[in-house]
Amino acid sequence: MLADREVRISHALTVQRMEEFLSNVDDLTLADYLDWKEFTSQVYGLKGRNRADDCVTLTANMFHDIAGKRYLERHFNFDSIATVKQLVDDVKGAFLEMLSENDWMDYKTKRRAELKLDFNEQNTYYEIVMAAEYWMQDRAFQKLDKLNTRDKFDVSVSEVNAFYDGSQNLIAIMAGMLQPPFFNVSLPRILNYGALGVVAGHEITHGFDDIGASYDELGNKNNWWDDRTYRNFEWKKQCFDVQYGSIIVKDVHVAIDGKRTEGENIADNGGMRAAARVAARLAARPSEQFIIAGLEDYTTLQYFFMHYAYIWCGSTRRATLLNKLATDVHPPDMYRVNVVLSNQPEFGKAFGCQKGSPMYPEQTCTLW
């Protein structure tokens, strides 16, 4: 039975290379390495760990539903749910318009893409941890012979996070995300679209990036693309590889890996395009006009772009930046702002930039 079962292995090439590597490592070397990793993670250079903090973290990670319920009861503003649902629906509607308007997809593949837009979401420490592990493993094995469902996701609602799960064709915005700087129900709507709206668009676009494109509307790995349309897709996304890959990051003089960051770059740009489309409509309505004290000279649409930049404000240490450039699938934060906005002609127009200037270039990268 097991020999006949077809399974999908995530990161199959990584697993294969790890197996090849381990086959050439002797047992003593491997044991020494594992001992050293355990030592450095538990003892070396660390202060005494707080057992109470460990218990809270493990409980929240392993018992998502229970911990999430407590978080929602104590900290979540349920009045914001309708506002967030409307925000996501607006951005999804804008993405659907962008999808329908593009001229590089055939009719049949567009219809399949539209279907994808129908997203769905003991007594001792040792014994408790082991019981939780057994329960999680048992639940995983129970899923082996079952088709995908889209009614569960294994993450705590209290996390400050949003994600797309290709295997379930599911996008989720955690309750922990519904707080400043990403969302504030009392702010003008267009500011929330510049933050959480772009995040929602980002996750929607992940369903159509270099990885998400290989999953169908049910979350199964399946080729639903017309051959010519997929070649167009491959050609258009290379623009982002070249654009980001040509950037030498200031201070460290290291280039961004355009290929490794490809999926996130596609999602950043697609998410901004969808949210900006909604923002432009809001900015045209008299009822949506407002003024921020100290920034009276800016327009409502300019506020939208400025608020997007605001959520990425921060300072990164040189060592951290080098590590991100070597391992992270996201580009450094400043490029998630400047490159993304330079690819939006609406930004250049809103700020009166000269055509051909760095933030309003003649040529831009666009996929969705």
Compact overview of the structure:
The chain is mainly alpha-helical. The protein contains 14 helices and 4 strands.
Features of this protein?
two-stranded antiparallel sheet, 14 helices, globular, Collagenase (Catalytic Domain), 368 residues, mainly alpha
Question: Can you describe this structure?
Answer:
Residues 36-120 form the Peptidase M13 N-terminal domain. Residues 161-366 form the Peptidase M13 C-terminal domain. Belongs to the peptidase M13 family. The protein is mainly alpha-helical. The chain has a two-stranded antiparallel ribbon with strand order 1-2. It has a two-stranded antiparallel sheet with strand order 3-4. It has a domain at 180-351: Collagenase (Catalytic Domain) (3-Layer(aba) Sandwich). The chain contains 14 helices and four strands. The two termini are 43 Å apart. β3 and β4 (254-255) form a beta hairpin.
